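Lab manual, section 2.4: Encoding a predicted structure.

Procedure: take the sequence of the chain (270 residues), apply the prediction step described in section 2.3, and record the output as structure tokens. A sample record is shown.
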Amino acid sequence: KVLRGRQAGMEVVDIPFDRTTEWLLERRIVGASYTKSLRTVHARLAAALAAERPAEAPAVAQLVPPGTERASLTYFDAKAVMQALLDAGLGEKTLFGGYSNAHTAQWADIVRRFEAGSIHLADAASAMAQAVGYELPALKKEAARAEKELSELVRRQGEYERLAAAAEERYVAACDKKGLGTDCSREEIGRRLRESRSLLRATFARVAALCQSEEMGGAVEYYLAYVRHCLEAAARLGADVGAKAAPPDVTADGADRAGKAGKAKGKAKE
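Recorded output:
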């Protein structure tokens, strides 16, 4: 919506936002060669951004920090910087009506050139079309992607919290099984381990004494005898099985011996 007319009889005119510049040209609110004047203003704006920020006006560095690109600024940003310079007391003028401070004079020239021929309206219309047509849809997509990632992170957080609660329950159950009770901290477990280490020394000494006793020696001798008996029995069983499963002798000597054995069996039958 664009306002026109005097304040007493102001009315609202509805026009497409992307045709605001054409509307301004058709009604000769801006000149046909406004782009040339706008390029000059943009060049001076870039020079002002390249200059150092005045130390007397820290608000200027907040409005246009070092590294700010010219394309991101409009007439309204220049007006805000100019107001910050004036608020900082840098608005003193010379006898000829200009500003004595170099920064104030530079930004005042930018504002004046923006307002000359109402080219600041065309610049604002272009910025509005850029924002609505490209920047806002991109921001919407980025916001939707961020919401999707956030929902996924919330889901993972809930899953990890459930896993942590289940692990804590298993840990407490294991502590109860070991007789640690409610105090199942790392320090308490370390203290119990140190105590058990001192108790194990006596247990190991008792086991060593039993191993060196006569009863243990007799048991060891009995076990060795049993193992020898099992091994010898297994060896004999293996020899018998091997003799029964020996393959026939297919050599000439073997055939001769087999024939003689057959004749001997025949004579014995007669």
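Check your result against the sample. The mean pLDDT is 81.
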